[in-house]
Amino acid sequence: MDAAHDPAIAGLDVYIVGGAVRDELLGLPDSDRDWVVVGATPEAMSRRGFIPVGGDFPVFLHPKTKEEYALARTERKSGRGYKGFTFHTGVDVTLEDDLQRRDLTVNAIARAPDGRLIDPLDGQADILAKVLRHVGRAFVEDPVRLLRLARFAARFHDFTIAPETLTLARQLVQDGEVDALVPERVWQEVAKGLMTQHPGRMFQVLAATGALPRVTPGLNFDEATLTPELEAAAQAGLGLAPRFALVCRLSEAPQDIGRHLRAPGECQDYARLLPGVLDALHDDDAPTEANASASQLRWLDLMERCDAMRKPARFLELIDTAACVDSLSVNASAWQQRVQALRSIDAGAIAQNLQGEPQRIKQAMREARLQALADIGP
After folding, report:
1. Which of 53, 157, 230, 334 makes a 20 to 30 Å CA pair with 35?
2. pLDDT band at 219 (very low <50, low <70, confident <90, very high)
3. Which residues contact 130 (CB under 8 A, 6 or more apart)?
4. Is residue 218 pLDDT above 90, yes or no?
5. Residue 118 in contact with residue 15, Cβ under 8 Å?
6. Which of 11, 64, 1, 2 is nearest to 38 (CA)?
7. For residue 312, what are the CA distances in angstroms to 26, 84, 274?
8. Measured between alpha carbons, how far is 281 from 321 in angstroms, rounded to an integer?
9. How many whole angstroms from its chain centre is CA 43?
10. Strands of the chain, DSSP E
11. Do 114 and 211 have their domain in common?
12. Residue 84: pLDDT band with limits 50, 70, 90
């Protein structure tokens, strides 16, 4: 519904802020809209049917659109970390006050319902110049801003980071503020950064500021190796789990990184399995008549370790992920044929013919699988 004809906000002083305005100015597809309400009280919002959802400060959902409306607020540092703030949301807080507390100038632009832009920090100039610049010295008070800076650097890969902003980001690390970040909050930003078209840049920025070993302990990020692999994954349209597996693949214990970050189980599984897939593919010589049986044994061992028969989509995505590392050694269509061949085996018939003999059933299944691989050839 057009804001000008929306009875829920009629008479309110409201503005679209942040990412939606930035992306519109960049000519990017519409993103979710966030609103700021100036001069209102929580009681007034509730009377209009808005649903309160904020914890530390008043945020409301629109009664129909469910878009977020936050009361204009200021903040004051009162403790360590990203939760160490006291917020003020009185009716005396102006829109400019609210914009002053944001992270980057490109995210501190507001649009009024009549289309007018409010840009007290000259974020439009930084958009034109393609620069990511902090709003103020308060940048060093919130370690999440460093994570967001790295993520936006990945999303807007053609933007530079202002040198003074990088200096403040390093100060966040040196002052120990990043140590107050909980793994779940780090994962939220890492996951978003991984799903950009240039995910490697997020880790480059974290490494350049000294934050990488603090927020992702154990991660070995070799920029020259992993950045092109991550870009290949993005170009191939691979999902979050494959990209996470790639970024962890040079680390000594990839699965431990996922556990530390509280990453979803699927991401942890991909990180655990990918090194084994790569090792198996690297060790697999080009099949010939002389070594065909050995190759089929290696293929079967790999597919069984990865549970390819029960989870074929995951296994084939791991193969696609391996192709981002070494495309010349991976024949994805051949692996699809192999998976299909194994899944076409009538396991029920084998089990019925050998009722009460579990060891023979297991052996017969393995022989049937090897024969199926032999039938389709190299």
Report:
1. 157
2. very high
3. 156, 158, 159, 160
4. yes
5. yes
6. 11
7. 40, 46, 15
8. 12
9. 37
10. 13-17, 34-38, 51-52, 59-61, 68-71, 74-77, 85-88, 110-111, 117-118, 131-132, 160-161
11. no
12. very low
Claim to verify: residue 76 and residue 89 sit in the same structural domain:
yes
Q: Token match 């009361």: residue?
A: 71
CA distance 314 to 270: 8
**Alpha-helical runs (H) found in 195-346:** 200-208, 212-215, 223-235, 240-248, 254-260, 265-283, 292-305, 312-325, 332-343
Q: How confident is the model at residue 345 (pLDDT cuts 50, 70, 90)?
A: confident
Inside any domain, residue 6? yes
Residue with tokens 């002053």: 100
Boundary of a domain, candidates 89, 113, 128? 128
Q: What is the band of 78 on the pLDDT scale with cuts at 50, 70, 90? A: very low
Residues in the chain: 378
pLDDT digits (tens, 9 = 90+) for 280-299: 888 655 544 455 578 889 89
Angstrom distance (rounded) from CA 348 to CA 71: 63
Q: What CATH number has the domain bearing residue 162?
A: 1.10.110.30
- C-beta of residue 190 within 8 angstroms of C-beta of residue 219: no
pLDDT 10s digits, 90-133: 888 999 999 998 999 999 999 999 999 999 999 999 999 999 99
